[in-house]
Design goal:
By secondary structure, this protein is of the alpha+beta class. Helices cover 62% and strands 12% of the residues. The chain has two domains: 80 residues, OB fold (Dihydrolipoamide Acetyltransferase, E2P); 251 residues, no CATH class. The termini are far apart.
Length: 416
C-alpha cells in the first residue's frame, strides 16, 4: 500500500497553517494574560522549584520554575540545593513580555525552603543516591533518569567526551525507553491478543499502551522541552502510521514543529528543543540519501554522520573541544545498550554494578580547546542543510563543509 502525505495540497496547507496560527495566538494571549497577572503588583510571592544553581564567586544564581514561569535570581552562596522547593518574593517592575517568555532575571528577597510537594520525585532521587558512593556518578544517573542538571565541573567533563546529548534527557532516551517497553509489553500481551483479541492490531495496541507510560514520565519530569518534542512526535507517528501516512518526511517534521510551537509558544526560546529538532532533521536528511544501506551499516554511519553534522551548530553555542569527542559516536551506540541495562540495574537496586567502568572513563584526562563556529559559516551551513532536502549536489557540498569543519576542529587541537 502506498504511503500518503498528511497534507496533499496548497489549500490544505493554508487551512492547516491558519488553524495553527489561531491556536498560537490563543496560547500567546493566554501567556500574555499570565504575564499581566504577574506584574499587576510590583511584589510577587510564589512557590518554586530550583532547577539549577550556577555558582559565582560570592553568590549563587538560581534557575527557578513554578511550571508557569521560568526565571533567575541571586541568592546567598550555598543556601539552597538543586531540586529544593522554596517560597520566594520577587520584584516584577522590570519584567517585559519578551523576557517573560524567554525566562527573566529578577531581584528577590525573603526566600526560604519549604517541603517538596512531589515526595515521589524525592524518593526516586534518594533511591538513586543510595546506590552510588561517588557523587559524580550519582549525579549522572539523576540527570539521565530525572533530568536533574549536572554541576558545572561535571558538565565540563562530560563535554570533553561530546556526550552531553546522552546525559540530558531527549528523544534518544524516549526512543530507547519505548523500544524497551515494547519488548516487555509484547511478551505479556501476545498470548492475551491471540486468545481474546485476535481481531485487533497488536502493534497499535502496544504503542498506545506505551504512550500512557511515556506521558506519565513526561509529566513526572515537568514537561522537559526536548522530551515534550519527542513525545509529540511519538504520538504523531502513531497516528500517521495508523493512517498509512508517510512519517519519515520533512513536511511531517515541519508539521510537528509547528504544532509544538503553536501549543507551547515559550518553546521558541528553548535551545534544547532546537538542538533536539536539528538532530531529527539530520537523521531524516541522512536517511533520504542512504536508507538503501544495510541496517547495521546504516546504524553505524548514521551516528557518525549525526555527530559530525551537529558539530558546526553545537560549537557556535558551546566551544569546548577535545580529541576524546571523536569517540562520541561509539559512546552513543554503546549508550543504546547501556541505558536500558542501567535502568534495570537501578530498578533492582544494583545500580552501582558498572560504576567502576564509568569512573575510569571520567578519570581520563585530556587537553581541551575553546573553538567557536564562525557565524557566517554557520549561516551558510544551515542554508545548505535546508537546500539539501531538494538537491543531492547540495547534500554533497554539505558533507564537504562538515568534513572540513571537523578537520579544522581537531587539526587545531592536534597542532597544539
Amino acid at each position: 500500500m502506498q504511503t500518503l502525505l498528511f497534507i496533499k495540497s496548497k489549500k490544505e496547507w493554508v487551512l492547516f497553517l491558519s488553524a495553527l496560527f489561531i491556536i498560537f495566538i490563543i496560547n500567546l494571549l493566554w501567556q500574555f494574560n499570565q504575564y499581566k497577572n504577574l506584574i499587576t503588583n510590583e511584589i510577587y510571592t510564589t512557590n518554586v522549584k530550583i532547577i539549577n544553581i550556577y555558582h559565582k564567586n560570592s553568590f549563587d544564581v538560581l534557575k527557578l520554575s513554578n511550571n508557569n514561569i521560568l526565571f533567575f535570581t541571586s541568592s546567598t552562596k550555598d543556601k539552597f540545593s538543586k531540586n529544593d522547593y522554596i517560597n520566594i518574593t520577587i520584584l516584577t517592575k522590570d519584567i517585559n513580555f519578551l523576557s517573560y517568555l524567554k525566562g527573566f532575571y529578577v531581584k528577590s528577597f525573603n526566600s526560604y525552603k519549604i517541603d517538596s510537594p512531589n515526595n515521589f520525585f524525592i524518593k526516586i532521587k534518594d533511591y538513586i543516591n543510595s546506590q552510588h558512593i561517588n557523587n559524580d556518578i550519582s549525579s549522572i544517573f539523576k540527570a539521565i533518569f530525572l533530568a536533574i542538571p549536572l554541576d558545572k565541573d561535571l558538565q565540563n567533563t562530560i563535554s570533553t567526551f561530546g556526550i552531553a546529548h546522552l546525559i540530558a534527557i531527549s528523544g534518544f532516551h524516549l526512543g530507547v525507553l519505548s523500544f524497551m517497553l515494547y519488548f516487555i509489553f509484547n511478551i505479556f500481551y501476545t498470548p492475551i491478543h491471540k486468545k481474546y483479541l485476535p481481531f485487533r492490531n497488536k502493534k497499535y495496541d502496544l504503542l498506545i499502551s506505551i504512550s500512557f507510560i511515556l506521558f506519565g514520565y513526561l509529566l513526572f519530569l515537568s514537561n522537559q522541552p526536548s522530551l515534550l518534542r519527542a513525545f509529540i512526535m511519538y504520538i504523531f507517528a502513531i497516528l500517521t502510521i495508523r493512517s498509512n501516512i508517510k512519517i519519515l518526511s520533512f513536511s511531517t517534521l515541519l508539521i510537528c514543529i509547528l504544532i509544538i510551537i503553536s501549543l507551547f509558544p515559550k518553546l521558541i526560546f528553548s535551545l534544547s528543543l532546537w538542538f533536539s529538532l536539528s538532530g531529527v532533521f539530520f537523521i531524516f536528511l541522512f536517511l533520504k540519501y542512504f536508507k538503501h544501506l544495510n541496517k547495521f551499516i546504516l546504524f553505524i554511519f548514521l551516528n557518525i554522520f549525526l555527530y559530525l553534522a551537529i558539530n558546526p551548530i553545537s560549537h557556535y553555542f558551546f566551544d569546548t573541544t577535545s580529541i576524546l569527542q571523536l569517540i562520541s559516536p561509539l559512546l552513543t551506540i554503546a549508550f543504546s545498550f547501556f541505558y536500558p541495562i542501567e535502568l534495570l540495574l537501578h530498578i533492582f537496586n544494583i545500580g552501582d554494578l558498572l560504576d567502576g567502568y564509568i569512573l575510569m572513563l571520567l578519570n581520563i584526562k585530556t587537553t581541551t580547546l575553546h573553538i567557536n563556529t564562525n557565524i557566517y559559516f554557520l549561516l551558510i551551513y544551515i542554508s545548505l542543510s535546508f537546500y539539501s532536502i531538494k538537491s543531492k549536489n547540495a547534500f554533497i557540498l554539505l558533507n564537504l563543509m562538515l568534513i572540513l569543519f571537523n578537520i579544522y576542529l581537531y587539526k587545531s587541537f592536534i597542532s597544539v
